[in-house]
Amino acid sequence: MDSVPALDEPLKKVLGPATAKVMAEHLGLHTVGDLLHHYPRRYEERGQLTHLADLPMDEHVTVVAQVADARLHTFASSRAPRGKGQRLEVTITDGSGRLQLVFFGAGVHKPHKELLPGTRAMFAGKVSVFNRRLQLAHPAYELLRGDAEETVETWAGALIPIYPATAKLESWKIGKALQTVLPSAQEAADPLPESLREGRGLVPLPEALLKIHRPHTKADIEEARARLKWDEAFVLQVALARRRYADAQLPAVPRRPRPDGTLAAFDDRLPFTLTEGQRKVSEEIFADLATDHPMHRLLQGEVGSGKTLVALRAMLAVVDAGGQAAMLAPTEVLAQQHHRSVTEMMGELAQGGMLGGAENATKVVLLTGSMGAAARRHALLDLATGEAGIVIGTHALIEDKVQFHDLGLVVVDEQHRFGVEQRDALRGKGKQPPHLLVMTATPIPRTVAMTVFGDLETSVLDQLPAGRSPIASHVVPAADKPHFLARAWERVREEVEKGHQAYVVCPRIGDEEDGAKAKKKSDEDEAEKRPPLAVLDTAEQLARGPLAGLRVEALHGRMQPDDKDAVMRRFAAGEVDVLVATTVIEVGVNVPNATVMVIMDADRFGVSQLHQLRGRVGRGSAPGLCLLVSEMPEASAARQRLNAVASTLDGFELSRIDLEQRREGDVLGQAQSGTRSSLRMLAVIDDEEVIAEAREEATRIVAADPELERLPALRTALDALLDEEREQYLEKG
Q1: Of the candidates 702, 308, 304, 249, which has an alpha carbon nearest to the alpha carbon of residue 432?
Q2: From CA 275, how far away is CA 449, in angstroms rounded?
C-alpha cells in the first residue's frame, strides 16, 4: 500500500515538475485528488470512430481514425533551395469523412515510419483549412496497438476517455497521468452517508472514480456519472442547508406594520392598485418580517415588474415597527436613481422632521463613497440617531464607520454583484440580525435558484404592471445589410420627432486608456476582431452624422459621479434626445419617455444582459423598440443568440437559453463567491431532479446532525468546498 500516493499529494511529486506545472497552470489541477476529479469529457469507441465530417474549424480536436494513405513530397523552398524540403501528407478516414494531416521538415521522419496505411491512432491538433480542404498541421498522435492476447472485438469495443485538454497537454497524456494516480482512488473518503447511497442505489466513490476513468462498458460510465453528480449536488446543498439552519437559529426582532402607520399612508397615496403578484409577494414578505427569526428571501422579478415598489413597502413596514431599513445598490448611478424614485413615490412621507412633511413621515438618506464630507457626516448622524428610517447606498454602507440606531431590514439590489460576505457585513450592523430581502431582475431557472441562492426562500414576480407597453426587438445585420443600420438611425429620429427619447448602448468607453488597452491586445493577437465600438467615438459620429441636429450626450462608468448624475437628470427631464452609454444603464434606470434602444455590437453582450438592457425602454404608455446591431454572420452562434433574444420577452426562457449556451461555471460563478464553477459533472438545467432531491436529503441530514459529527467524510468534503469558496472570494475581493 506504501506505493499509492495520498489524495492530497502534490502532482509534482507523482508526475514530475514539468507535467505538474502545465496541469496547474492550464487545468487548475494541483493534487492527486484534483486529477482524479478531472473527468473525461466523452469517450471514443475504437470500433466506432469520431465523425471527421463534423469537425469544427479552429478548434483543438482529438479524433480516432485509420490511415488511408501517406505520401512524402520533396520541394524547393528558401530554406531548402535544392529541392531538399520534405512534406509528409497523410490522409486519415473514419468512414464518414477524410482529413489530411501534414508534417514538414525534420518532423516527417517519425510519422513516415509509423503512420502506415491501415494503422489506427488518436490524433490531436487544431483544425485549419488549406486549399479549401480541412487539415491538421503537425498533429500530436498516439498509435492504438492492441495487445497480442487482446481479441479484435474487445480491442475495437474498448472505450477511450477523451479529457478536457489544452494545446500544451493532449488528452492521452492526461490519460497516462491518470493511469499513474488511479490506484489512489481506493483511498477516497466517501462523503455520502451509507444509508443515502444504498437507498438510491449509488456505487461507492472509489468504484465511481475507477469506472469514470477506466470504463469497460457504457453502463460503467452511467453508474459513475450518476454517483459523481450526486456528490456535487449533495455537498453543495449541505453547505447551503447548514447556512439556512444557522440563519434559522438566529434571533430577530419581529417587525409588524401599524394599521394606521406610514405604510398605510403610502398605500393610500398610490395612484394605482397593486398587481395580484405584488400583493401575494408582499404578503409572503410581511409574514416573514413578523417572525422572530431573520427573513432570508430572494425576490425575482421580470424587468419592470415593480420589485422596487414591493421592497419599499417592506421597508416602510419596518419603519412603522420602529426600525430602520437599508437598501444596497451595486453602483452609484443606481443608488441615486433608487433614492430619487423612492423619495418621489413617498412624497411628503419622505420629509420626516422637515416643514411640509407628513405626520408619520420619515427621512430617506443617500450614502455613497463620493459624497462630500459635510453631506456624509449629516447622513451618518441621521442613521446613528434613528432620524432616517430609510438609507439607500452603495458599498459605502458596509464601512465600519456606518452605525445604525436599529437596523431591521436590508434590501440588496441585483444580488449577483454582492458576495455572501458582503451581505453578512451589512447584516452585522444590526443589534440583532436584520431581515434580508435580495432582489434580482435576472430571472433564474428554479434549479439555479436552488444551487446559487439555496440559502434563501424564493418569491417570483412575473406579472407586468398595467400600463407597461410591449417591446418589439429586431436584429440589425450591419455587415450583410448596411441599409438596415441606416434605417435604424431613421427610426431613432422618428421617435425623437414624436417627442420621445432613445438610448444607444456600446460595449466600451473609448477614452485614451481604454483605446490603448484594446490596441495592445489586437497587436498581440491578430486573430482578435476589431475592438468593440466605444461610447465616446459613437456619440461623436452620431452627432456629426446620422443624428446631426439632435441633442446627443454620452454616459459611462468612468465619469465623475456628479457629472453622471447631471447627465441622467437631463435625460430624465427630456433635455437630451439620445443617450449614448455603456451598460451603466443596465439596471434600474427609469425614464418612461425613452422608447427606443439601439445596442451596438450586441453579440458582445450576454443574453441576460441584453434582456436587462432592453427593459429600459417601453416603461411608459408608448411601445418600446430594441434594435440589436451585429456584424456577425447569419450562421454564427452569436447571431442565433441574438435571434433568441429578439424572439421572446420571457426572461425565464432566456435565462435557460443563456445557461445552455454558456459553461455553467460562468453563470453560477457570478453568484455568491465563485464555488459554483466547481461543478464538473452536474449540469444545472438537465439535472433538476438530482438537485431537488439532494436539497431534501441535505435539509434532513443537517436538521438531524447540524455539525455533521456522525459524518466525518462529508465534513471533509464540505471543508474542501468552502476552502475553495473562501480562496476564490479573496482572489476576487
Answers
A1: 249
A2: 24
pLDDT in tens, 76-135: 666 655 557 888 999 998 777 888 999 988 888 889 999 999 888 878 777 888 877 888
Report the pLDDT averaged over residues 569-588: 83
Strand partners, 135: 100, 128
Residue 327 to residue 287: CA distance in whole angstroms: 20
Listed residue (446, 424, 471, 411) closest to 610, CA to CA: 471
SS3 646: helix
| Measured distance CA(544)–CA(547) in Å, rounded | 7
Q: What angle do CA 109, 110, 115 make, to 5 degrees?
A: 110
Residues in the chain: 733
User: Is 542 in contact with 581 (CB distance < 8 Å)?
Assistant: no
- What is the identity of the amino acid at 338? H
Q: Which of 340, 360, 341, 338 is nearest to 349 (CA)?
A: 360
Residue 586 C-alpha cell reads as: 443596465
8 Å CB contact between 465 and 275: yes
> Which of these, 733, 732, 723, lies nearest to 34 by C-alpha position?
723
Cβ neighbours for 614, distance < 8 A, ≥ 6 positions apart? 303, 471, 473, 597, 599, 624, 626, 645
C-alpha distances out from residue 570 to 197, 501, 564, Å: 63, 12, 10
- pLDDT (tens digit, 9 = 90+) per residue, 668-689? 444 333 333 456 777 666 777 8
Instruction: Determine the pLDDT at residue 365.
Output: 93
Question: Is the separation of the CB atoms in 434 and 294 below 8 Å?
Answer: yes
CA dist list (Å): 294 to 184, 254, 408, 705, 732: 45, 8, 9, 22, 28
Share of the chain above pLDDT 90, in %: 25
* Residue 471 host element (H or E): strand 471-477
Residue 649 neighbours by CB under 8 Å, 6+ apart: 470, 471, 473
Residue 685 burial (CB count, 10 A): 15
Question: Is the pTM here over 0.85, yes or no?
Answer: no
- The grid coordinates of residue 555 equal 454616459
Spatial separation of the C-alpha atoms in residues 374 and 382, rounded to whole Å: 13
Beta-carbon contacts of residue 729 (< 8 Å; ≥ 6 apart) = 419, 420, 421, 673, 674
Residue 180 confidence (pLDDT) above 90: no
> Is there a contact between 91 and 102 (Cβ–Cβ < 8 Å)?
no
Short-list 150, 145, 133, CA closest to 99: 133
| Residue 659 to residue 668: CA distance in whole angstroms | 9
Beta bridge partners of residue 43, listed in sequence order: 161
Q: Return all residues near 703 (Cβ < 8 A) that are at least 6 apart.
A: 245
Longest CA pairwise span in the chain (Å): 100
- pLDDT score at 156: 47
C-alpha cell read off for 471? 417591446
Q: In 10 A of CB 629, how many CB atoms?
A: 22
The DSSP 8-state label assigned to residue 275 in this structure reads: P
Q: How far apart are CA 506 and CA 598, in angstroms?
A: 9
Q: Determine the 3-state secondary structure of 276 from DSSP.
A: helix
Residue 603 · residue 630 · CB < 8 Å = yes
Identity (one letter) of the amino acid at 724? E
Question: What pLDDT band is residue 272 in, cutting at 50, 70 and 90?
Answer: confident
User: Residue 554: in which H helix or E strand, if any?
Assistant: strand 552-555
List, in order, residues 6 or more apart from 74 with CB less than 8 Å away.
Answer: 83, 84, 85, 86, 87
Q: Do the beta carbons of residue 62 and residue 161 sit within 8 Å?
A: no
Contacts of 192 (CB under 8 A, 6+ apart): 202, 205, 230, 231, 234, 714
Helix (H), strand (E), coil (C) string for 359-380: CCCCEEEEECCCCCHHHHHHHH
**Three-class DSSP category at 344:** helix
pLDDT band per the 50, 70, 90 thresholds, residue 303: low
Average pLDDT over residues 390-395: 90
